[in-house]
């Protein structure tokens, strides 16, 4: 069954605490978006000290930064970090970044923006634990889902890739059915969980019900 890892992309500590506590015990892992304002035109709040004091669920770090190795080093001491998601794109050496990430206890995920050919996965398939496809160009929540993402997921699945496939960006009640049909294993909704007048926990529950319905 497809699992949900809500994506927290926030401007400050106050919004982080509101979003995180609003999840209650509805999920076992959160995705923390870390953007430097250079790799993407947005800079997020993500303070390792606060996160280590507050968060009791597992955490995957989604690094939308020009220097992912420097960013990773800030999080080594945070106990609940279990996975780091690094972009193929950007001015860093992706092979070096993946090798550095593999020296940690964390799982390592490769993230592809919508325009990056899925063929690049082949170069790293023996080094990564998960593949995440972006359903939007990263940086902000509430953007329009790029439908081609479903074909990219399906064609990667069709190649018999062993790793789980995750999708992030534009995931909501409208796009979940086609994403599940394409074979996605994990979805990372942002505004569908944190962007309406229901509590995040209520939104997660509603999306879990939808997944069960669509998967039946
Ligand atoms: C996009 C971020 C996503 C974002 C998803 O820049 O990497 O994780 O928070 O938000 P929605 O689900 O609203 O597209």
What can you tell me about this protein's structure?
The chain has helices at 13-22, 48-54, 68-73, 94-102, 148-158, 176-182, 191-194, 200-215, and strands at 3-4, 7-8, 29-35, 58-64, 81-87, 107-112, 130-134, 165-168, 186-188. It is built from eight helices and nine strands. By secondary structure, it is an alpha/beta fold. The chain is globular and about 40 Å long. α5 (148-158) links the parallel β7 (130-134) and β8. α5 (148-158) runs parallel beside α6 (176-182) and α6 packs across α8 (200-215). The protein has a nine-stranded parallel β-sheet with strand order 1-9-8-7-6-5-4-3-2. It has a single domain, classed as TIM Barrel (Alpha-Beta Barrel). The relative contact order is 0.16. D-xylitol-5-phosphate binds at residues 7, 9, 33, 62, 136, 138-143, 168-171, 188-192. The site of D-xylitol-5-phosphate has 20 residues, from α7.
């Amino acid at each position: 069954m497809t699992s949900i890892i809500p994506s927290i992309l926030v401007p400050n500590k106050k919004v982080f605490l509101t979003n995180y506590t609003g999840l209650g015990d509805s999920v076992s892992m959160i995705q923390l978006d870390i953007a430097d304002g250079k790799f993407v035109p947005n800079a997020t709040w993500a303070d390792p000290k606060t996160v280590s004091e507050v968060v009791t669920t597992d955490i995957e770090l989604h690094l939308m930064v020009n220097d992912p190795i420097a960013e990773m080093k800030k999080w080594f001491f945070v106990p609940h970090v279990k996975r780091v998601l690094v972009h193929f794109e950007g001015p860093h050496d992706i092979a070096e970044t993946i090798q550095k990430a593999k020296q940690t206890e964390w799982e390592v995920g490769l993230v592809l923006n919508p325009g990056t050919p899925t063929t690049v996965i082949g170069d790293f398939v023996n080094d990564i634990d998960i593949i995440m496809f972006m359903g939007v160009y990263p940086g902000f929540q509430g953007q329009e889902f790029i439908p081609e993402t479903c074909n990219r997921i399906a064609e990667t699945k069709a190649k018999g890739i062993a790793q789980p496939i995750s999708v992030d960006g534009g995931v909501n009640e409208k796009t979940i059915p086609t994403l599940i049909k394409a074979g996605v294993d994990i979805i990372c909704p942002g505004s569908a969980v944190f962007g309406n007048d229901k509590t995040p926990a209520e939104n997660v529950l509603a999306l879990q019900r939808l997944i069960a319905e669509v998967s039946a």
